[in-house]
Amino acid sequence: MAEATLNTSDPTAAAVEVEMRKKSFWRVFVERNKAGAFGIFLLTVILLLTFIGPFFVHGENRTNVSLIYGGPSWAHPLGFDHSGRDIWYQIVHGGRSVILVAFLAALMATAIGVILGSLAAMIGGKFDVAMLTISDVVLTVPTIILLAVLAAFVRLNSPVQLALILGATGWPVLLLAIRSQVLSLKEREYVEAARMLDLGMPRILFREVLPNMASYILINFVFNMRGAVYGQVALYFLGLVSLSGVNWGIMIQEAFRRGAVFLPASMMGLVAPIFMIVMLMWSLILVARSLEDVFNPRLREP
Amino acid sequence: MATLVTDVAAIEEEEDVVRQSRLKGFLGNYFLRRLFRAFLTIFFVSTLTFFLVRLLPGSPVDVYINQQIQQYGYTYEEASNQARSLFSIDVEQPLLLQYLDYLKNLVRGDMGMSITAPGTSVASIIESRIGWTIFSVGTALIISFVLGSFIGMLMAYWRGGKFDGFMSTFGAITGSIPDYQLALLFIVIFGVRMGLFPYTQMRGALSSGQQVEFSFAFVQDALYHAIMPILVYVFVSIGGWMLLMKSTTIQALEEDFVTAARARGIPEWRILVFYVGRNAILPLFTTLTVSIGFVVGGSLLVEPIFQYQGIGARLFESIQQRDYSTLQGIFLMITVSVVAANLIADLLYSRLDPRIRSKG
Lengths: 302, 360
Fold this sequence. Notes:
By secondary structure, chain A is mostly helical. Chain A has a single domain (42-53, 76-294), classed as MetI-like (MetI-like fold). Chain A contains 15 helices and no strands. Chain A starts with a helix and ends in a 7-residue tail after the last helix. In chain B, 80% of the residues lie in helices and 0% in strands. Classes of the chains: A mainly alpha, B mainly alpha.
């Protein structure tokens, strides 16, 4: 460290640089981006709790009339709900499907956005106009109302159907972004060169265009997941998805329907799942923002 | 003399042409195209509802007709007549004619009758409810927009400070609470647990016995009942405005004209309001359109929780009761209002920022 400072004209800058090299990527990341690091930590905790947790908190969670609205204890830290079931058990087991459905929905929305967006830019003409119009319509109509109306007509019975309908409303923002990016990249020389070599459209798209947008797509994916969590729990709250199994959304719906709004004792059954959902959404936002920060240093604050 | 006259005429003509082309350009480029897009959206959504109501396998119309035949022993003709009065769709006509009929009825404002509340037209249900939603959502949008952009400007001005740090975290957290869950938390924690506000009294859109009239008592009562939904809408949407305004203000602060204004010795508050603020707030108007849709959508879930008698609560009820004709009518009406609000926001923006008109 002493030698390094001797040789350069700006000792402090050199020292900082040496310091940076010594530290791992993660140390630098955590120092530069505290909120993002916290988001990743929070998301990891939630994922561990919901995917590994069930192996530790197992057994059956039967209804038990004698334990209705029972208070918390060491074995049951969050107490019991309206039918005497352990709330902590439901919290641990109820996150998996919420996260998986959100993941699937975001995956689908991303696929639609990427494929149709790049096709619209590549093909152009009437197809482009049609795509623009449809995304404009989907963007204008309030998403949650569109979701609720669709779900009221089409019965949703399985998590996959739920993911499908959530994914079907989440793609317009990505489509527009991909389209405009592809339109501008299309004119770049390396894409032109690829076209000269008579490489097919799909190849140009997947090899040249999309890698350039990977960071944007990833960030959009995280935001889409967040939207899917919101929409999904809202559909459960509306009672438009079959209420079977253990699930944070179902917990909120049942607690609300069973009168958590009147009974102070039942508060935990409502507050615990809401807390988990808010933490999940918050961590997703923080992760998305930190991804933006990493991939787009220009946005970094001075 | 003669040349002079023709000259004047020519100049006048030229001015006329300029004026006309300007008008034409404005209409052709922006206003008309925007209007066309608005109508297209409404048309698409009404086509979608027709598809959902009529064409989907096991459509509500078919289900209703079958139910009437099986339960009450009606003939198919009688049952389809019943369905016709409910949905304004005559099933015995060819599909294309049904569709055209349906559109014609919509344009006339005839959206059929409610299934679960016999004898009530969907139009009258909407009429009695939509005012409350426009009132509460509109007030909340204005409050969160004004307050949020003001706070955002201060955050940018004192960036890196304590106020900025606190507000950034506040905005990020409130932005990640789903609106209806925040409403539930408000009621359960502050209402039921702590008893800070009489949440049962505050239900509904008006106290019983209060007439809709033009008086101070009425306004007071309406505000008293709307305050909780408004608070929720403001809470969940204000963070977005704050963060957006902060970033646009930081950009505007770095503009040359701000440095020039400082050099001219113009007071700091004047620079902040008239030089920076005016330029920073412009991009926010484009986001306003997204926000309108979001907050109006939130009313579907927030209103039932507070039992606020707006259009969202009614949509919630019709979803629960599978009152398809009402559901369809409210869905269309919400779409129309959001499209109209977007149109107004867009036109306002184009008046504030003339650059938009040419770019379209």
